[in-house]
Amino acid sequence: MMAMPIPHALPATATLAATALMASLPLAADDVDDGLSVAASERCSARYSEVVHHRPARDATTPKQAVRRGFDTQRDWGTEHNVEVLAPGEGGLDQPVLRVHYPAGTSSPGDDDDGRGQGGAGFYTEDAALAGAERACLRYQVRFADGFDFVRGGKLPGLYGGEGPSGGDPADGENGFSMRFMWREQGQGELYEYVVNQDEDHGASVGRGLWHFPTDRWVSIEQEVVLNHPDRDDGIARVWIDGAPVLEQRGIVYRTSERVGIEGVMFSTFFGGHGEGWRTPRDQYADFGDFRLYVPGA
Fold first, then answer.
1. How many CB atoms lie within 10 A of CB 97?
2. Which residues form a coiled coil (predicted)?
């Protein structure tokens, strides 16, 4: 299926028309093809109440400090060498922006056998405002540099719960889940998830090509996670790109224990995959900003 690029801004009539058209087409999915449709609900940021607005701290003296203070995290990597902070206006938003660098020859954090160093950056927020929430919404903006070479793909932030399994560690129902995004070849977008009911020995690729990431302009990503009841397969994920619905997935098992909840944002960005074929051929960067979290009835 040829993927449909999503325009930057759609009026309500165009959004409805795009939704109807996409609903009539088969949905792309690499590893998972069950329970997919187009989100019919209004975007979650319009239905829920904002409880957290993360952005780099303005009073920090280093990018690492800006991340730790602005995103309330002490678990981070790559922020010392691969992150810079753009001042309000400098990055095209009215607030500070994170610019993440991917040095030439780098891919995943674990792919540093030849001493090339790490590319990208990562951290986990732990947001008290989400405590006890059975559903949550994340919205943020990303901008790939002009002429960005997507190579084979790379990771982008998403919601997580529990320990946020990734890197080939399976979700077993009690250790949590992760619902990151990925870019793929030529900017194809997808959900990249670690959940209980997927049979891959890595994350499951869901909805690949339902949208494309452009370069040199901001794109709004919006993600809704609805946790399953621990004894049922009734979890839901929904995605909107620039306000337009592109994906709804049902039948997800995020957990088998009530102890697993939604913790916050798993900020994770790097090229890969693992191995030479995933590595960026030159120094590149992407910008991230305006991270907001929402829950119902706050």
1. 23
2. none
Amino acid at 113: D
What is the spatial distance between Cα 264 and Cα 9, in angstroms, rounded to a whole number? 27
The alpha carbon of 145 is separated from its chain's Cα centroid by a whole number of angstroms, namely 18
CB 238 within 8 A of CB 5: no
Confidence at residue 5, expressed as pLDDT on a 0 to 100 scale: 35
Q: Decide if 177 is inside a domain.
A: yes
- CB burial of 157-175 (b: ≥16 within 10 Å; e: otherwise) equals bbbbbbbbbbeeebbebeb
What is the pTM assigned to this prediction?
0.89
The reported pLDDT for the residue numbered 275 is: 87
**pLDDT at res. 116:** 64
Asked if residue 212 is part of any domain, the answer here is yes
Closest Cα partner for 210 from 193, 188, 225, 237?
A: 188
Mean pLDDT in residue range 123-144? 97
